[in-house]
Design a protein that fits this description.
Elements: H1 2-16, E1 22-23, H2 30-39, E2 43-44, H3 47-51, E3 60-62, E4 69-73, H4 79-87, H5 94-97, E5 105-108, H6 113-131, H7 136-142, H8 150-156
Parallel strand pairs: 1-2
Antiparallel strand pairs: 3-4, 4-5
């Protein structure tokens, strides 16, 4: 998660100027949310995660082999969104003049927005428990990150005997 490293590196500086930092990109589950908030973000963007909801806008795609339902997801900085805005006569910001970011992709529909947010809340509560804290301010200020090597991950993971 390169965004997590970035968040860790700039959070204190942003606080000096009372600039709330928003983590954007790569958030796939509730543990990612907990990590970003512990690293110093004040909020997180959930574009791809919420695109997997029943209510999400976007073209519905049904896989004829598996009958699984997907939505097409395009990040707002993608080339396809820029072209669509221009075709509709809308103005695009200078940010769109730069290199586009993101590629349209299919995301599997996993539930309602309510289901997804409840999962995020439960995961965030779990993250606080793991960190030994009871609220988000403590999570942000009292939790330390520990770098784990791949050997440590193997040793700490499921053991096959």
């Amino acid at each position: 998660m390169p965004g997590l490293t970035s968040t860790l590196e700039v959070a204190d500086e942003a606080d000096k100027y009372r600039v709330p930092m928003v983590a954007d990109g790569g958030i796939r589950n509730s543990s990612d949310v907990a990590k970003y908030l512990a690293a110093g973000a004040r909020a997180v963007m959930l574009g791809r995660l919420l695109a997997s909801s029943e209510e999400a806008a976007g073209q519905l795609i049904i896989d004829s082999d598996t009958m699984t339902r997907h939505h097409e997801y395009r990040g707002m900085a993608s080339e396809s969104v820029r072209r669509e805005l221009e075709a509709a006569g809308g103005r695009t910001s200078r940010a769109y003049a730069r290199k586009p970011e993101g590629v349209p992709q299919k995301v599997k529909i996993v539930g309602t927005v309510f289901d997804i947010t409840q999962d995020l809340v439960r995961g965030l509560q779990s993250g606080c428990t793991y960190g030994g804290v009871t609220n988000l301010e403590q999570l942000r200020n009292e939790v330390d990150f520990v770098r784990v090597t791949s050997a440590g991950q193997r040793e700490g993971g499921v053991q096959n005997f």
